[in-house]
């Protein structure tokens, strides 16, 4: 599983292969230069003890002074190279970490935006935020430091181990006896840590989800005096996260003490057998001193193996979650056909549409409906009859199971998604405003619009008057989700945003549900201007909103059961006439 994760990461980072190899090379070279001082000390002892018979003397420098001068220059060079490679690997790894975390986050977020609404309905926002933030940041931390530390460990073991075997083969084998046991123990610990860290990431997502959900619903929590209840729920999630981390810590913390015991065996073996070899004349005192010193550089890094494995496991758990997100297939693909807003007439046709949400009974059943270009139609019906689902299918938030939807005679599945949605202005009953100014929210989606165009759209939506009364007018910050504004004000801004987009097809999904009667009347007056030269589909519970529509369709259980003008439907003793009597107060 970890091998798969690292391969996925390397495959993703193919563009930066040269930078990766550069960072790896400098990490290895830095480790080699870092290991040089013990070797230089051994050579210095050799010069002082053996003089003209030393290792350096074999290169033609016989005087002790000259040999020490060469050794000093070599020391200066190696230390300089160590500093240089440390700068290079640090810069390369950290730049790589910043670049990859940036691109992974952008790619993951962009991929999320391409997924259908069903995906978001089945998952919490906090869990997705955990992947986009916590997991990607965990990978960044690993690349900043962990990757170099692992390379430092591997290079040290390989370099020192090879030297040890070359200088004292008889002693080295005994000194290295603990290493296979250390590696085996590390693999065992790794296999047991992997599921524990996966559980830690899962619990982290859950606590993030809980906190994000509660902060979004803080007004509801306060209104129901549920602070203690929510605190207890957060406590449970946090306690589960703490326990999950505790299980991982309990295992990882036991690793170092066990490894120290094994390392002690190797060090003691070198100390004893090396001393015996010197006493028997089989090993020089200088080499013995060097080996006793260098064995620590070989074995003690194994005490860091637990921390290295800990960092690696956390990073790979995060990689799996991020790559798993990127691997989710896009179920609503873009069509190949472009559609220019300027040439769209706005004829919309639903042909034998059937649709059901996952695991539920059909919301729409063999429904057919044609909206002529430039016409204004109203759709009414009880809650759950499929009204809003119909327009979400038109926007391709969901894909129909059978049948097709046409715009100007073109199947919307063949149209580029961006082109399709540019042709449609949608005002939802669940208005979402972004944290920013009033003007920024009206201009959203029409980012090049002038201030004059923004104001004109606000006037058509009957929003200009209240906007001017705000503390900073159009520059007033609306707060997260527009919480500083009333429901009616938010809805009028949403209408203004759709008007500014100037689409050939306009969808008003309960667009006046949160406004008072006076504001509704004002919006009704502006609708005659708003709907000119565009196809309008108005979904409403308030029948007064759509009474002047060219045609009104009444839906019930996913099918159209009545249709006609307001006057025609009133003459029938059907669903619409009954709804009108209730809303008008005429119960006769």
UniProtKB/TrEMBL annotation:
It comes from Thermocoleostomius sinensis A174. The keyword Lipid metabolism does not apply. PROSITE patterns: ABC_TM1F, ABC_TRANSPORTER_1, ABC_TRANSPORTER_2. SUPFAM superfamilies: ABC transporter transmembrane region (SSF90123), P-loop containing nucleoside triphosphate hydrolases (SSF52540). It is a multi-pass membrane protein. Residues 27-314 form the ABC transmembrane type-1 domain. GO terms for molecular function: ABC-type transporter activity; ATP binding; ATP hydrolysis activity; ATPase-coupled lipid transmembrane transporter activity. The lineage of its organism: Bacteria, Bacillati, Cyanobacteriota, Cyanophyceae, Oculatellales. GO terms for cellular component: plasma membrane. It is found in: Cell membrane. Keywords: ATP-binding, Membrane, Nucleotide-binding, Transmembrane, Transmembrane helix, Transport. SMART domains: AAA (SM00382). The keyword NAD does not apply. Its main location: membrane. It comes from the Bacteria. This is ABC transporter ATP-binding protein. Residues 348-582 form the ABC transporter domain. Pfam families: ABC_membrane (PF00664), ABC_tran (PF00005).
């Amino acid at each position: 599983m970890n091998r798969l994760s690292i391969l996925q990461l390397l495959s993703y980072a193919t563009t930066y292969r040269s930078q990766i190899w550069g960072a790896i090379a400098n990490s290895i070279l830095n480790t080699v230069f870092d290991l040089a001082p013990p070797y230089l000390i051994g050579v210095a002892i050799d010069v002082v003890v053996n003089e003209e018979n030393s290792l350096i003397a074999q290169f033609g420098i016989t005087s002790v002074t000259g040999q020490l001068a060469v050794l000093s220059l070599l020391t200066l060079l190696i230390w300089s190279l160590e500093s240089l490679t440390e700068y290079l690997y640090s810069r390369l790894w950290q730049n790589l970490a910043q670049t990859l975390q940036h691109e992974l986050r952008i790619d993951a977020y962009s991929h999320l935006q391409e997924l259908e609404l069903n995906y978001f309905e089945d998952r919490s926002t906090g869990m997705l935020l955990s992947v986009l933030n916590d997991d990607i940041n965990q990978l960044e931390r690993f690349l900043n430091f962990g990757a170099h530390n692992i390379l430092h460990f591997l290079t040290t073991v390989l370099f020192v181990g090879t030297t040890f075997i070359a200088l004292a083969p008889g002693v080295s084998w005994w000194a290295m006896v603990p290493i296979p046991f250390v590696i085996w123990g590390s693999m065992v610990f790794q296999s047991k840590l992997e599921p524990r860290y996966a559980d830690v990431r899962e619990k982290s997502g859950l606590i993030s989800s809980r906190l994000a959900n509660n902060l979004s619903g803080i007004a509801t929590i306060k209104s129901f005096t549920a602070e203690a209840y929510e605190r207890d729920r957060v406590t449970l999630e946090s306690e589960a996260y703490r326990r999950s981390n505790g299980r991982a810590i309990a295992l990882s913390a036991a690793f170092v003490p066990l490894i120290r015991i094994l390392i002690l065996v190797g060090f003691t073996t070198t100390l004893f057998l090396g001393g015996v070899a010197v006493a028997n004349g089989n090993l020089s005192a200088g080499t013995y001193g060097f080996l006793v010193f260098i064995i620590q550089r070989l074995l003690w890094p194994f005490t860091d193996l637990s921390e290295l494995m800990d960092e690696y496991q956390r990073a790979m758990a995060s990689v799996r979650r991020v790559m798993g997100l990127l691997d989710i297939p896009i179920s609503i693909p873009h069509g190949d056909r472009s559609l220019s807003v300027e040439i769209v007439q706005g004829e919309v046709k639903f042909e034998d549409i059937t649709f059901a949400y996952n695991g539920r009974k059909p919301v729409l059943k063999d429904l057919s409906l044609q909206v002529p270009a430039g016409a204004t139609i109203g759709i009414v019906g009880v809650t759950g009859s499929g009204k809003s689902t119909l327009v979400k299918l038109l926007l391709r938030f969901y894909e129909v199971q059978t049948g097709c939807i046409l715009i100007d005679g073109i199947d919307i599945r063949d149209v580029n998604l961006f082109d399709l949605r540019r042709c449609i202005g949608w005002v939802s009953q669940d208005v979402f405003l972004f944290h920013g100014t009033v003007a920024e929210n009206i201009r959203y989606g029409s980012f090049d619009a002038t201030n004059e165009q923004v104001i004109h759209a606000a006037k058509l939506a009957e929003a200009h008057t209240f906007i001017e009364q705000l503390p900073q007018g159009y520059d007033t910050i609306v707060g997260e989700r527009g919480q500083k504004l009333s429901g009616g004000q938010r809805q009028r801004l949403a209408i203004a945003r759709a008007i500014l987009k100037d689409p050939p097809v306009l969808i008003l999904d309960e667009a006046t549900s949160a406004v008072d009667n006076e504001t509704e009347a004002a919006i009704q007056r502006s609708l005659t201007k708003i709907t000119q030269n565009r196809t309008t589909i108005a979904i409403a519970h308030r029948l007064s909103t759509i009474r002047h529509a060219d045609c009104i369709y009444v839906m019930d259980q996913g099918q159209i059961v009545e249709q006609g003008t307001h006057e025609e439907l009133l003459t029938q003793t059907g669903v619409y006439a009954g709804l009108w009597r209730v809303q008008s107060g005429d119960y006769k």
